[in-house]
Amino acid sequence: MKKLALSIALGLNIVALPTFSATEVATLTDFFSDKGEVTTEKNYAIYETARQYLKVQEKVGVNNFEHKRVLTPTDQQPVVRMNRDTYYSMAVVNVSQGATITLPQIPEGKYMSMEVITEDHRIQAMQYGSGTFDLSTHAGDHVYVIVRTDATFTEDEVHAIQDKMTIDAKASAEFKAPQVQKGPFEKVEKELKAEMPTILKRDGAQATAGMFTDPQDESKELFTEEKYAVGAAIGWGGAQLQDNIYEVSGNFPADTCHQATFEDPENQAFWSVTVYNKQGFMFNDVANVSSNTATKNADGTYTVSFGCGDDAPNNIATKNDSGVFNLAFRHYMPSQKMRDGFRVLPLVKAVK
């Protein structure tokens, strides 16, 4: 059925988008058009979400998994600030008549999570481990599902796990979205990304609070339209704070050594830090360090180095064509220490 209008829940308010006049499409190839809708800061998150839905749907159709069989290669980064912390499996699922996803058993102590992203880029709380999970949405007929599986599995091990993931959906109609003009879309995206340094300076450790929320749970209390729009631009598909705490930096000069020494965050799963170029993309095969790979100091703390040479503890190279680098610390299943305000990013300092 053609969507004539879509009511989107933003925070506590219901905002009705205008009737779509542009042609509706089911593939990414057809998404951008000179005759399409014009992107604004208010609708950017909707259109970026549509773009991500169509990207997966064009590859594997609806109600099917697109499994990433290797950790994210540098030449295959569909969104900004991807990482190599986990293997990814994605799907667009029609939930209009009911749908479930079943995830297989994995060894105790390993990480596997399922995240649901609705058509208006609202983020439901994660589900963890094996089981059969019901899928639902407050907006539209489809959801986007991301399953993240522990990077410490070998490729053969993760392939066996991925092959046992199943989707049971009662409806099979494809997701469709209006065509969008490419120029205004890219302009707004660039402007939203440029707002992040101001938010970082203003909000510090709470910079990402309110970006990734669900209007149907308590996370809605953090929602702001500003954070909602910027979040979709700098890290589409980010998780709720209860599931992942993100620390995203501004830019550092790539020719200067930086280090951080910090206490163990004691997360329930793990922490990681990934290095990106100015545009927000990984540029080296070794782009991250995590608590699964880092060597601890004798006193139990960690030191992570950025652009300090191979002899520096837990070093990640930073030299790249953009001349700067930025960081994203991720805390998977964050500890109470993290929830109480402990942060690593302020400890990153230039080393003379």
Automatic annotation (TrEMBL):
Q: Which domain of life is it from?
A: Bacteria
Please verify whether the record's keywords include Cell inner membrane.
no
Annotated InterPro entries = DUF1214, DUF1254
Where do the DUF1214 domain residues begin and end? 262-336
Q: Which Pfam families match?
A: DUF1214, DUF1254
The DUF1254 domain sits at: 62-117
Signal peptide positions are: 1-21
Q: Which UniProt keywords apply?
A: Signal
> Which PANTHER family does this one have?
BLL3101 PROTEIN
Q: What is this protein called?
A: DUF1254 domain-containing protein
Source organism (scientific name): Vibrio ezurae NBRC 102218
